[in-house]
Amino acid sequence: MAVTIPATPAPIDLDLDHTALLIIDMQRDFLLPGGFGESLGNDVTLLQKVIPPLVDLLAAARRVGLPVIHTREGHEPDLSDCPPAKLRRGTPSKRIGDTGTFGRILIRGEYGHDIIDELAPAAGEVVIDKPGKGAFYATGLAEVLQSRGITSLLVTGVTTEVCVHTTTREANDRGYECVVMSDCVGSYFPEFQRVGLEMVVAQGGIFGWTAHSADVIAALD
Ligand code: C5J
């Protein structure tokens, strides 16, 4: 089924048979008070604003049977997949693999690494564990999308200027139509949120489109 979504810089026609909802890194360590993100001095309420509209968008996607793909940023417990340059980044004691409030920071299997309860993956939904900021690097995402015939992505999650942007750019280069859901992506930095969204749609939509979740939900329902 094809639908037209009001979007920036122009409306976009989406073939829902070839569209997936991509939910990037809605992990406890980024979103919960006391987690890794907050320990770095960030205001997590700026990310938590994303949860209610994303819960609604996820419910709508599930209602119409859109494939849902979740990602989580993190590393093996032995850190063998974490480049030394990434490992050295940040304040000592608050680096990847160190012990935080919710377990070892960004380590697979730890409580903080997992997705927040509100957006917990349902049975059958794909969860991509990624060591990088982009969801294509060192993951099976390309194969998942190809095998399901996906050509368009509704991109959501955190953070706008880091993992959402990197993944959108990777997807755009691979030929996917990316619609970044403006109220379902979040940044700890209001300025980065604003500019991050503007960058997607600059120059006629250089990386894709932005759209509001209410408009997509209306089109899905
Ligand atoms: C960050 C992410 N910000 N998921 N990760 O380090 O955007």
From TrEMBL:
Q: Does the keyword Hydrolase apply?
A: yes
Gene3D superfamilies, per database record = Isochorismatase-like
Q: Which InterPro entries match?
A: Isochorismatase-like_dom, Isochorismatase-like_hydrls, Isochorismatase-like_sf
Boundaries of each Isochorismatase-like domain copy? 19-206
Q: Tell me the keywords, alphabetical order.
A: Hydrolase
Q: Where is the signal peptide?
A: none
Give the highest taxon in the source lineage: Bacteria
Name the coiled-coil region(s): none
Spell out the molecular function terms from Gene Ontology. Answer: hydrolase activity
- CDD domains membership: cysteine_hydrolases
Under which name does UniProt file this protein? Cysteine hydrolase
**Species the sequence originates in:** Gordonia oryzae
